[in-house]
Write a structure and sequence with these properties.
Chain lengths: 432, 167
């Protein structure tokens, strides 16, 4: 069998029906000999010959299907539409389709298939349970004879597909003023002549600044040259830090909350990158894995790849290690968004360590309360009491975190309005 | 009820019923066994939602037809009807209501090869002088088929074809 490098070769697979017919045929032949009657032989003949005949009617090598697909829909709705083209000589009616639903998504309706003369069109209708960013694996497609006796898996060649769903409020993040800014690199198109845009702040003048941008009143008061800055000419830096250390919540809840954090981080990065800000990413498990600050489409791809690769790290590490490692990659004073559940001391410790290293931190903490696994049946009073205790415990965790940094308790996963409002507050920005 | 597949199901029941009738069993037991097997398979194929239960749908009809074949008397007509019943099972399998329509038309090789072999076997039985010869054919077939099945299941690459090199 000759296939391109990296393409798996598949063998013909006998299905249950084949074994049933072949087994029945063999038993009938034995019965014919034992009972000394030829009638069972005549019934056995079709049973014995059908499966080999079906095998010879199919493709003799791994079928290679090409096609295209894409994700549609908004909010929690996810619709995947696509089509695959079988090679010449392979009837698309004989293709068996199986589109498995990735974790974090729920199948709303069975796959809708439409067979054309030269292709198989499919539509998958899913629903995102929470904000998510997931790679969708290509559907499993196999050639199967019409009688369902034999099948052979096909090699499906489709481009990578990532489903991203995050709260819509993140689109408003672009207007947030960031603490650490720099002059926008490269050519900046503006309809105005000279420096334009909203007044941003005052900073130390540099020899490159033209005289008309010097703020003479402020310079006179300060006793040194200060210059005006305008928002349109500047870009900000944002650092996103994901705490992927295992917590006392257990691996299942940890993974689910990390998936939600990954989606939010992707949405925040997307929003700031669209506004030409520089975005960096740190994923901290046992060690730090960092994507340095940068902007543009390539950075979006780098951040997305790092987020998709982020998994819960069972090996624990001290929070100080994260803060020290972050300073190797990122300058201080960068607006830092930390994604952490804050459920135990190790995760809550991260905030003061980052603050002490000079990172102004805002914590976005996905609440574990909505995803706690169901406990065995309890009386309504007991359930209410447990819920109340969990809420009190959570409130205490968030209050302790607030002592170190502004913290958003993220319980409604489809809304990030409190987080966007917090970042937009004048108290959290520093002028100049 | 989905009207698709009713034709092949009716064919299965009809051929099975006739096959059961020629067994000559008392009180129409042969017909009853064949028809109950056919009905059981059809219902098992259409009703259950679970795919693993549906996959067992061919079992009742195969068991019923095998029972009828074991009880059938010697003769050219029972032999012909037994073969026809086997082909009817294949036709019913090919007319799967969960697959795109036209399964029977696309199963020419799967249905044609067994039907052709059946025709040759029945013609041999018709022309050969005694039933002892038929039994000899059965023994030879048994040995051959068991060996062939063991070989084919153990070596699925037999059905692979080497692609020509492009370089």
């Amino acid at each position: 069998m000759t296939l391109g490098s990296g393409e798996p070769e598949t063998l013909l697979r006998w299905r249950f029906r084949s074994y049933l017919l072949l087994g029945a045929g063999a038993v009938l032949l034995v019965a014919a000999v034992a009972l000394r009657t030829p009638v069972p032989v005549f019934l056995a003949l079709p049973f014995l010959l059908a499966a080999p005949a079906a095998a010879f009617s199919g493709p003799r090598t791994t079928p290679r299907l090409t096609g295209r697909w894409g994700a549609e829909g908004s909010g929690p709705e996810v619709t995947i539409r696509g089509s695959v083209h079988p090679p010449d000589g392979l009837d698309p009616h004989n293709l068996r389709f199986d589109g498995p639903c990735p974790p974090g998504l729920r199948e709303v309706a069975p796959a809708a298939l439409e067979v054309r003369s030269d292709r198989l069109e499919f539509r998958l209708t899913w629903q995102a349970l929470e904000p998510t960013i997931e790679v969708v694996a290509p559907p499993r497609i196999a050639w199967q004879d019409p009688a369902g006796l034999v099948e052979r898996r096909a090699f499906v060649e489709l481009p990578d597909l990532v489903v991203e769903r995050y709260p819509p409020e993140l689109l408003r993040l672009a207007g947030v003023r960031l603490r650490r800014t720099m002059v926008l690199p490269g050519e900046t198109l503006s309809r105005h002549i000279g420096p334009a845009g909203e007044f941003y702040g005052i900073r130390e003048a540099t020899p490159a600044d033209p005289a008309r941008r010097i703020n003479w009143s402020a310079s006179a008061r300060a006793g040194r040259l200060l210059t005006n800055d305008y928002q349109v000419d500047r870009t900000g830096d944002v650092l996103l830090v994901l705490d992927t250390r295992a917590t006392s919540l257990g691996p299942a809840v940890d993974e689910r909350l990390l998936a939600i954090s990954r989606a939010a981080a992707a949405g925040i990065a997307e929003s700031f990158l669209r506004a030409k800000s520089r975005v960096g990413l740190g994923v901290f498990g046992e060690f730090l894995s960092a994507v340095p600050l940068s902007s543009g489409r390539a950075q979006r791809g780098r951040i997305r790849a790092a987020l998709l690769a982020a998994r819960i790290d069972p090996a624990s590490a001290p929070s100080e290690r994260c803060a020290i490692a972050l300073r190797r990659y990122f300058p201080p004073d960068v607006t830092t968004v930390v994604f952490s559940t804050l459920v135990d001391e190790a995760s809550a410790d991260l905030l003061p360590h980052l603050r002490l290293r000079g990172f102004p931190v805002v914590a976005l903490s996905p609440s574990p309360l909505p995803v706690y696994p169901h406990v065995p049946p309890l009386s309504p009073e007991d359930e209410q009491l447990i819920g109340r205790l969990q809420q009190l415990l959570r409130r205490d965790q968030v209050a302790r975190a607030w002592e170190e940094a502004p913290t958003v308790d993220w319980a409604d996963y489809w809304s990030l309005a409190p987080f966007v409002n917090l970042l937009s507050r004048p108290a959290t920005r520093r002028v100049g | 009820m989905n009207p698709r597949g009713l034709g092949s199901w009716a064919l299965l029941l009809a051929v099975g019923g006739i096959f059961g009738a020629v067994t000559g069993l008392p009180f129409g037991s042969g017909v009853l066994i064949a028809v109950v097997g056919g009905l059981g398979s059809g219902l098992l194929d259409r009703w259950p939602r679970r795919a693993d239960v549906r996959s067992l749908a061919p079992v009742p009809v195969v068991v019923a037809f095998a029972t009828v074949a074991a009880l059938a008397p010697l003769g050219l007509l029972p032999e012909l009807l037994a073969g026809a019943a086997g082909v009817a099972v294949l036709v019913w399998l090919a007319d799967d209501i969960r697959r795109p329509a036209g399964g029977i038309r696309r199963s020419q090789l799967t249905l044609g090869v067994p039907a052709l072999a059946l025709g040759i076997a029945w013609a041999s039985a018709l022309l050969l002088p005694s039933t002892a010869a038929s039994l000899g054919v059965a023994v030879a077939l048994l040995v051959f088929v068991v060996a062939a099945i063991a070989y084919l299941i153990g070596a699925p690459r037999v059905f692979d074809r080497e692609e020509p090199s492009v370089s």
